[in-house]
């Protein structure tokens, strides 16, 4: 059973077979992690299928089942954890050709999976003065389906939380990997069967999303005496429900000065920075918050007029900006649970100093203002990286490991039985993105370390309120 047989059966579909181009389409930003770079650097598919519509998606899937060829879906390839990398070779299914808006009306849009987020926002702004509730820092290149299948939160999460929170996705159209593929519409709680599943249990072809009001956003950069002062400002802003805001991030002293090229000379030495987005009518309301926490505004530019939007210095883009300057860095993804989050941040600072540089993003998590850390780490060895992770978790700061490519070892930290059960039905041969769902091969898998909070997993996972008390 070969990829060539699949190609012969689907001659009307555009195929990429040039080895250099296939390798390029088989990769994402896994190299943020030196661990994943060692593990995945040689991964490549044998060919890339570029369908133009859902019928062609179904044709490729049916042919792959017939010839038992692995199939890995891909959007723009902006993920960081190897989500779209074909561990078992076979075919990469490039969905960027499915890039049409199906319909849009006030408050909601339905679009194909391959549409770029920036293009989708442009259409909804023009048609109904709405925009997606949130987006990743890769908004200018990322696709809608890729964000749903591989993402979690981002710019806008300070108001609307994570993708998994009820109401942030309204519907998914999913194709099953069977001899005769079925088209399923997932709505309500069924959405979680394929949300953040890396395409391991169905191919998402359409997504229905709620829209937020399309404000005229302003990028604001401010300096503070230290990380905690900047963090208290960001927390207070996110807690100010009357202020329309889309982003509240913080970096420790030295981070922006070393790694944010447009702002290196703007920030005084030894000062922390806050990077926020607020709607233009509320801009003046930042002044009393800045005064309260000893901050000073350095920069305020409409987001759409900025040469590089400020969100491209936050979330996972913070790491990318740092790697452009120093390839010896990597990162963590951490929850600092309230109400002792600032004590934990200060404790980790005291323990690690410049080895782990603080980068915090403030979000609503189950309605509670919380902060995630996407800290920059000076990498030395895998053993030391594991030790840093252990120290954080022992202190009560769960790590959602960005140095692992499987669903369970990253954000889940447990088997999601609902997604596993759905895979058994929707991908009975285990051909979809194989190697990414541990539970498919080992249903009794358990993590080495238990933790008290799970971003994803079964419905009996602890409630956010229980963790944050």
TrEMBL record:
<keyword id="KW-0285">Flavoprotein</keyword>
<dbReference type="InterPro" id="IPR016166">
    <property type="entry name" value="FAD-bd_PCMH"/>
</dbReference>
<dbReference type="InterPro" id="IPR036318">
    <property type="entry name" value="FAD-bd_PCMH-like_sf"/>
</dbReference>
<dbReference type="Pfam" id="PF01565">
    <property type="entry name" value="FAD_binding_4"/>
</dbReference>
<dbReference type="InterPro" id="IPR016164">
    <property type="entry name" value="FAD-linked_Oxase-like_C"/>
</dbReference>
<protein>
    <submittedName>
        <fullName>FAD-binding oxidoreductase</fullName>
    </submittedName>
</protein>
<keyword id="KW-0274">FAD</keyword>
<dbReference type="InterPro" id="IPR006094">
    <property type="entry name" value="Oxid_FAD_bind_N"/>
</dbReference>
<feature type="domain" description="FAD-binding PCMH-type">
    <location>
        <begin position="40"/>
        <end position="214"/>
    </location>
</feature>
<dbReference type="InterPro" id="IPR016169">
    <property type="entry name" value="FAD-bd_PCMH_sub2"/>
</dbReference>
């Amino acid at each position: 059973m070969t990829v060539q047989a699949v190609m012969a059966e689907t001659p009307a579909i555009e195929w990429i077979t040039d080895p250099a181009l296939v390798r390029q389409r088989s990769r994402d930003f896994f190299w943020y992690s030196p661990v994943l770079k060692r593990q995945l650097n040689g991964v490549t598919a044998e060919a890339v299928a570029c369908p133009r519509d859902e019928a062609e998606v179904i044709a490729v899937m049916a042919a792959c089942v017939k010839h038992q060829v692995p199939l890995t879906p891909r959007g723009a390839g902006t993920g960081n954890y190897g989500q779209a990398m074909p561990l078992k070779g076979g075919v990469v299914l490039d969905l960027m050709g499915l890039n049409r808006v199906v319909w849009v009306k006030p408050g909601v849009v339905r679009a194909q999976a391959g549409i770029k987020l920036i293009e989708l926002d442009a259409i909804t702004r023009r048609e109904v003065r709405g925009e997606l509730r949130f987006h990743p820092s890769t908004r200018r290149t990322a696709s809608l389906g890729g964000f749903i299948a591989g993402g979690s939160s981002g710019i806008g999460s300070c108001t609307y939380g994570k993708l998994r929170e009820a109401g942030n996705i309204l519907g998914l159209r999913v194709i099953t990997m069977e001899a005769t593929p079925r088209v399923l519409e997932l709505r309500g709680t069924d959405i979680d069967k394929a949300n953040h599943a890396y395409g391991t249990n169905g191919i998402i072809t359409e997504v229905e999303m709620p829209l937020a009001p399309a404000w005229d956003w302003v990028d604001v950069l401010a300096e503070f005496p230290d990380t905690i002062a900047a963090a208290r400002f960001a927390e207070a802003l996110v807690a100010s429900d009357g202020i329309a805001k889309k982003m509240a991030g913080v970096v420790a002293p030295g981070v922006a000065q070393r790694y944010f090229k447009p702002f290196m000379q703007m920030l005084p030495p030894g000062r922390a920075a806050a990077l926020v987005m607020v709607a233009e009518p509320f801009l003046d309301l930042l002044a009393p918050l800045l005064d309260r926490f000893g901050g000073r505004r350095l920069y305020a530019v409409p987001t759409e007029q900025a040469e590089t939007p400020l969100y491209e210095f936050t979330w996972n883009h913070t790491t990318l900006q740092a790697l452009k300057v120093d390839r010896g860095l990597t990162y963590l993804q951490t929850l600092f649970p309230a109400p002792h989050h600032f004590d934990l941040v200060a404790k980790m600072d005291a323990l690690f100093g410049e080895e782990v540089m603080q980068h915090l993003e403030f979000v609503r998590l189950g309605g509670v203002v919380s902060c995630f850390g996407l800290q920059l780490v000076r990498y030395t060895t895998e053993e030391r990286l594991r030790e840093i992770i252990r120290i954080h978790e022992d202190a009560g700061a769960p790590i959602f490991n960005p140095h692992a490519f499987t669903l369970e070892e990253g954000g889940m930290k447990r088997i999601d039985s609902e997604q596993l059960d759905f895979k058994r039905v929707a991908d009975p041969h285990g051909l979809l993105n194989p190697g990414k769902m541990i539970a498919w091969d080992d249903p009794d898998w358990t993590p080495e370390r238990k933790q008290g909070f799970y971003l994803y997993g079964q419905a009996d996972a602890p409630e956010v309120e229980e963790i944050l008390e």
